[in-house]
Backbone:
C-alpha cells in the first residue's frame, strides 16, 4: 500500500492518506483529505503544495507520487455564498 503524508499549514503533525497505486491524482487526494477531516466541498477548496519543493499542485489531474509529503491550506470558494451574506427583510 502506498501513502502520502499531509499536514495543514496550521498544524504541527502529519496525517496519512493510503491508496493502492504508485501515484494519486490531485482531485482524489483532495477528496480523501476532505473525507478524513470532515470538510464539505461546498464550504472550501484545498490548496496542496509539495513540502519538499514548495511547488503548488494546480491541475486536478496532476499525479502526486507515493511517499510524498504535502502541505494543505483551506481556501474559500470564490463566488460562493457565505452564511453571513444572507439578506434579511426588514
Residues:
Amino acid at each position: 500500500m502506498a501513502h502520502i503524508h499531509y499536514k495543514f499549514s496550521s498544524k504541527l503533525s502529519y496525517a496519512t492518506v493510503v491508496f493502492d497505486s504508485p501515484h494519486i491524482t490531485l482531485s482524489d487526494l483532495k477528496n480523501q483529505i476532505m473525507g478524513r477531516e470532515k470538510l464539505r466541498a461546498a464550504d472550501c477548496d484545498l490548496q496542496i503544495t509539495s513540502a519538499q519543493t514548495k511547488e503548488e499542485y494546480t491541475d486536478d489531474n496532476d499525479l502526486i507520487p507515493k511517499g510524498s509529503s504535502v502541505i494543505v491550506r483551506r481556501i474559500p470558494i470564490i463566488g460562493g455564498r457565505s452564511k453571513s451574506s444572507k439578506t434579511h427583510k426588514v
User: Anything to note?
Assistant: Residues 26-37 form the longest helix (12 residues). Confidence is low (pLDDT under 50) at residues 81-90. The chain is about 15% helix and 40% strand. The helical segments are 26-37.
